[in-house]
Amino acid sequence: MGYVDAHVHVWTTDTAHYPLAPGIKLEEMKPRSFTPQELFQHTRPAGIDRINLIQVYFYGFDNRYLLDMIALYPDTFVGTATIDPSGPDPAGLMTALARKKVRAFASSS
Q1: Which of the residues 43, 79, 102, 105 has an alpha carbon 20 to 30 A from that of 64?
Q2: How many whole angstroms separate alpha carbon 21 and alpha carbon 61?
Q3: Direct distance between the N- and C-terminal alpha carbons of the chain, in angstroms, rounded to an integer
Q4: Tens of pLDDT along 40-64?
């Protein structure tokens, strides 16, 4: 059994598929990307095999990249999604996200 990293952000330069939240500029993305493949270069040698991904603020309440990476690496990732507590149905959204391996929620991006 390996280790768990409980707080990791991942992001991509693919802003066509994963647009940045309003007001976020590309210059804020430092380094420019930190994808799961880049992450694994650090975690695998350290014996980390389970990771809780935390929604990065670049995407605001749009959790698609987080969810796509959890789906791509289901044996490695679970997530903490960001939700809008003033949105139309936060409880319903939380229930739907929980079905996609989201295990915790934050209310600010």
Answers
A1: 43
A2: 8
A3: 33
A4: 999 999 999 999 999 999 999 999 9
